[in-house]
Amino acid sequence: MSDLALSFDTFTYKDYKDWPEDFRCELIDGVVYMMPAPLIWHQEIVTELGFQLRGFFKGKPCRALVAPVDVRLFPQADDSDDVVVQPDLVVICDEAKLSDGKACRGAPDLVIEILSESTKSHDLRLKLDLYKKAGVREYWIVGSDAVKVCQFKPEFIEIISDLKETNEVKSRIFSDLALKF
Q1: CB 70 within 8 A of CB 102
Q2: Per-residue pLDDT averaged across 10-38, rounded?
Q3: What is the mean pLDDT of residues 49-65?
Q4: CATH number of this structure's domain 37-68+85-180
Q5: Which residues of 154-170 are buried (b: 16+ CB within 10 A; e: fewer)?
Q6: Beta-ladder partners of 60
């Protein structure tokens, strides 16, 4: 994502859902942000973490999903909402949020973003604020040498794990979840 928007027009989910499936972008406050294909390093981490999450949640009421998955953080019944993001990994424990089969309607419980140079500022600032406002319970930001875990509720807690010192990062909201890096 660059800070250069695609257009001066603003859009809603009603517009977004009519765009081609291969049009990779996010919609933030009505502004379209293009999403270039991620680097191989990024995809290797997404694949590994997705595999671990799927194993951990198998047989449990939560579902782990890997991008691209549309997440409508502030869904409106008339599709006028103007925020649609595609986090790298999400865990959703409320099955009703997935009932339309098209997008997650509302905040996932856990969101994991893998940092890329092109998305770094969005993931560290803009998306962190959006996820907090939407009610995401926990947000992980994975870099090449550290993982920042942010728990938003009941109070804001931020823990940074140096991947040079540890290869395992624990969730704050899922007591038995520890992902290996």
Answers
A1: yes
A2: 93
A3: 97
A4: 3.90.1570.10
A5: eeeeeeebeeeeeeebe
A6: none
